[in-house]
Each structure stands twice: as C-alpha cells, then as structure tokens.
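Example record

The entry below shows one chain as it appears in the dataset: sequence first, then structure tokens.
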Amino acid sequence: MKSTVVGSFPSEESSPSNFKDKLLNTFGSYDPFKEAIKDSVIAQLDAGVDIISDGQVRGDMVSIFTKYIPGMKIEDGNTFIVSKIRNPTQEISIKDLQYAKNVMKDYYNGNIPEGCGVKGIITGPNTIVHSSRIQSFYKTKEDAIIDLAHSLKHEVDAIARKVKPVYIQIDEPFLSTGMVEMKTAREAIDILKEDLEVPLGMHVCGILDNAFKDLAKFNVDILDMEFAGNNVNLGVLEKNASLLTNKKVGFGCVDSSVNEVDDIEDIENLVVKAIDIVGKDNLILDPDCGLRRAPKDVAFKKLQLMNEIKDKYS
C-alpha cells in the first residue's frame, strides 16, 4: 500500500532575496515559484508520502493549462474557447516535475525507494471544457472535449517520456456532476491513454452513486475518489467493487474540505474498511482532494496522520 496526494499543497510566491536572484529578476529570469515547489516536495516527503506532486503552485487547475493552448483565452480569471483548439505552444509542466523529482532524489541521497517517485497531474479535457465558455467555432462541448484531449495528449506523452513518473493522474471532477456526456468522456480518456507507457489514473471527487458504474468502465489503471468528506461513496464502492477489474483505488481518506486536522481514528476506520473491500495491495491512500486552501501546518499534519495509518497496515 502506497500513499500520494491529489495535487495541490499550500504555497506562496517568493521574492528575490540574494544578489543572484535579484540579478535574475532584473533580466526576467527569476522564478517566484521554484522555492514553493521545493518546500511542497519536502513537506510531502517529511510527512511520509510515497508518490509526490510538484504542489501545483502556479495557479488554478484550469488556467495553468489553458494559457498555453491556442484556441483558448483567459480574461478576468475565466477561460473562453474562441477558435479551434490546437496543440500546446510549449511543454507545460515538465520543468516543474523534473525539478520536483530532483528535489526528491536529493532528499533520498540519490536513491529514490522502489515504488516511490513523482506523478504528473493534468486537468482533464472534460473538466476544462465544462469550466470554460464557448464563444465561437464549436457548436457542442463534446467536439471541443475531443480536440482538447488530442491537445493534452502531447503533454501526457511528454511527461511519460521525459519525467518517467510513477503514473499520470487526470483530474476530472466534473464527471460526478451529471453534466458530462459519458461516452465522449471515455473517448477523451482513451485518447490520453493510447500507447501510454506509464499507468494512467483518474481523480473524480464528489458523490458517485450515479456515476460509479460509468467510471468503472473508463480505460484507466487507477480510479481515485473521495471517501472522507461524504458518507455515500464507501457504500457505493462496497456495492460495486467487483466492477473495478484490474484497477487500483485511489482512496481519499483525509477530508480536504475542512481546514482542521482529521481524527486519526476516523482515518483508520476508513482505511480498514477499504482494505476489507478491495485489499491493501489495490489501495493508494491520499486526501479527498487538493490541500491548497489549508494552512501549511494543517495540510502537513493531515498527510502525516494518513501515512501513519499507511505504515501501520502496509
């Protein structure tokens, strides 16, 4: 049994404080987020997380991708689809993931333990399109979703090839809302999965009683869901676990909706039930969702308690 994070971690931009950084800032080369990535990675590792993220420090989950995708524009924090969606103008998350992996390698003195490492995280095409407003070109969201999947496929393949992550996670919270046409959603994920040489996971938060049977059909290796923040999904999993053929379960056992430290007994009770349902070898423990809104000390303690339970039952 391993542990991971859904993605985001509390962070803030830094200002240049020494001569070198101030010089870099003068020439526009200073990165105000680099220190935040390092702090996020070290916090995750200190808490005992096995499969880390880069902290997703550079912005919200939609604009961090759409600002690099032709056919989409951002105004006043909102994303609009203004023409045909085309391939990204650059690799979006590669440098941050490579840096996070190097921080992790240094942390372990050059030898990252087996089964541990970094994962790439991409906001899914269904969620991005449903979070955006179509202004022109596309008559349906479904056509935009498929074109965006082909665009994001370039980022997925670049992560797999250049970072060699433990796996790649596609964030698709909209799949639990009932707003997404599931046939199109599966086709989009199939595009991202095609010829992929690392496992593909999909994170879907929200109540899943109406969506689980559809989600179980998606061509992913890991289906990540929340179980701490609602009292429905555990029963849904127990009733439908047999549908998850050859899939691991990303098991949200820490409540990311509250900025208070979870009761360790609550975490343990959830994990024990999950072990009974799918077996510990099929579990990857994580929070329900990202922890960006929590104070750093609270986010760290949540991860630390989660990993105490992981170590107890591994």
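Notes for this example: The chain has a mean pLDDT of 94. The chain has one domain: 2-313.
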